[in-house]
Design brief:
Distance between the termini: 42 Å
CATH topology of the largest domain: Phosphoribosyl-aminoimidazole Synthetase, Chain A, domain 2
Oligomer: single chain
Order of helices and strands: HEHEHEEEHHHEHEHHEEE
CATH architecture of the largest domain: Alpha-Beta Complex
Shape: globular
Number of domains: 2
Helix content: 25-40%
CATH class of the largest domain: Alpha Beta
Radius of gyration: 20 Å
Length: 320
């Protein structure tokens, strides 16, 4: 039986997730000990019920997504994760059983990615559930990956496959009902539990000239890289790596290619470098694909099989 109120939840559920410098969550703040010759990297993301998750997910899946979208940001900067803080605002409809399962999900992710809880805050809200995680990591001084740094003529690479997250959202909303059920569930899984490319990000230190994670959409996140550098990009649609589910979805509805290049929620990495960069990344546990090049002329152009520029309705998610 849980102790009453906020302090009961902290003692019974959250303190067991804490680690070095958290003081069993009994103090007003936590401490991160620096590593000689390293820089501390910080990122934070919020997920809101009905916006970033549908509300039909299990508590364990919500916990996984909350941590993994932040871990993806650390991966994009070549960072090894250390710990995190957690803030939640939950409506009264979220029972102790939900919170217990959510914390069990956090524990699974902590063990998987070798991180621990440092602290946080909990409140109630009359609105939708709102959860924020702030992740801390470290990287050797001078080896941080940045969005800035791409150079004209360099090759653009992506990890994994593109479009599964956005298609998974459509599948979860029942909008891909004509797809095979196995493929539907795989796409939904990609949306609910993305795979942060920590190992790849660390391997890109000193190799990639620029990097970002694909959260807003492939073309939008490539534009982030190119605009910082005052450059542009040409992307070949035929080279964008697709999963079996994505290929089947496009075969049934040809317009879904717009979702693939602009839908977001992939949490793969996009990065730039010399053409042979992929040859040094054979042991990172994920496929690497060259999809285009950085150009001197500004603008991000998607090139179709006929060699012409394709008209894109929406490049990616727009933060309001």
């Amino acid at each position: 039986m849980l102790g009453k109120g906020e302090f009961g939840r902290i003692r019974d559920l959250l303190a067991p997730l804490s680690g070095s410098g958290a003081f069993d969550l009994k103090d007003d703040a936590g401490v991160i000990s620096g590593i000689l010759g390293h820089e501390i990297v910080v990122t934070t993301d919020t997920i809101v019920a009905g916006v970033h998750f549908l509300g039909s997910e299990s508590p364990e899946e919500v916990a996984a997504k909350l941590l993994r979208v932040n871990l993806s940001d650390l991966a994009a900067m070549g960072t090894k994760p250390i710990c995190y803080t957690l803030n939640w605002s939950l409506p009264s409809s979220y029972s102790d059983e939900w919170v217990i399962s959510f914390c069990a999900g956090l524990k699974v992710q902590q063990e998987m990615f070798d991180i621990y809880l440092l602290g946080g805050d909990s409140t109630s809200t009359p609105g939708p559930a709102c959860l924020t995680a702030t992740l801390f990591g470290h990287v050797p001084r001078g080896q941080l990956l940045r969005r800035a740094g791409a150079k004209s003529g360099e090759t653009i690479f992506v990890s994994g496959t593109i479009g599964d997250g956005a298609l998974g959202l459509l599948a979860a909303q029942g909008m891909l009902a004509d797809l095979d059920e196995v493929l539907i569930q795989k796409l939904i899984g990609c949306y609910r539990i993305p795979e942060p490319r920590i190992r790849l990000g660390i391997a890109l230190r000193g190799r990639a000239s620029a990097a970002a994670d694909i959260s807003d959409g492939l073309l939008a996140d490539i534009r982030h890289l190119t605009e910082i550098a005052g450059l542009g990009a040409e992307i070949k649609m035929s080279e964008i790596p697709l999963s079996c589910g994505a290929r089947n979805a496009i075969a049934k509805n040809g317009e879904l290619w717009q979702v693939i290049v602009g839908g977001g929620d992939d949490y793969e990495l996009v990065f730039t470098g010399e053409p042979d960069l992929a040859d040094s990344l054979l042991n990172v546990g994920v496929n690497i694909t060259a999809i285009g090049k950085i150009t001197a002329e500004p603008g991000v152009n998607l090139i179709g099989a006929d060699g012409n520029i394709m008209q894109v309705n929406k490049e990616g998610y727009c933060h309001s």
